[in-house]
Design brief:
Elements (H helix, E strand, L loop, with lengths): L1 E2 L13 H4 L9 H8 L5 E3 L2 H13 L1 H11 L3 E8 L8 E6 L7 E8 L4 H19 L7 H11 L1 E3 L4 E3 L1 H13 L4
Parallel strand pairs: 2-3, 3-5
Antiparallel strand pairs: 1-7, 4-5, 6-7
Helix pairs in contact: 3-4, 3-5, 4-5, 5-7
Length: 182
């Protein structure tokens, strides 16, 4: 579920390599080291729990890997975190972050803490699809333009600026189906 909001991003990034081995990714593989810990990556976990979610998704789902790869070649940078204080009717959301930096656009993805690993990966995949929808719309540089985009491509919900798309729902289902054994 996409929720449009403005927020400030103040965070310290924890490296994903600590959790990579648990997810079946070999942190000694130079390509994996670069991909998971590169300061140039565009999908960044806040905290070791979210870094493990990203590592699990990357290790177990081709769809998830494709989303991350496409975002890595975009101007959208995603900060993903697990939070305890989500509204009751929302399991995940993407928040548009205002920026004066013209080269990149930033979003914060929040996943309700306490989800199973499988559900957390699927929810993150769903939200990464929303980030990719943003990446495919270079004209969106502020919250008003984001609302306009989702009015055009999405479905709205009666409570506030809440939107979803069929593509994001399908992506979440596809990621979930690829997570065999999780």
């Amino acid at each position: 579920m996409l929720r449009v909001a403005s927020a400030l991003l103040l965070t310290i990034m924890a490296p994903a390599l600590v959790m990579a081995r648990a997810a079946g990714v070999d942190p000694n593989d130079p390509a994996e080291r670069l991909r998971l810990a590169s300061p140039m990556r565009h999908v960044r976990g806040i905290g070791s729990g979210m870094n493990r979610v990203i590592a699990e998704g990357s290790a177990r789902s081709q769809t998830f890997r494709d989303l991350v790869a496409r975002l890595n070649h975009s101007d959208v940078i995603v900060y993903a975190e697990q939070v305890h204080d989500m509204p009751m009717n929302i399991s995940a959301r993407m928040l548009f972050l205002p920026s004066t930096q013209p080269r990149f656009r930033y979003v914060r993805v929040q996943i309700r803490a306490g989800q199973s690993m499988k559900e957390a990966v699927a929810l993150l995949g769903h939200e990464l699809r929303h980030a990719l929808e943003l990446a495919d719309a270079p004209e969106v540089r502020d919250e008003a333009a984001l609302v306009s985009l989702y009015r055009r491509i999405g479905e709205s919900y009666p409570s506030g600026h809440r939107y979803d798309t069929a593509a994001a729902r399908e992506t979440g289902r596809r990621v979930r189906s690829e997570l065999v054994g999780l």
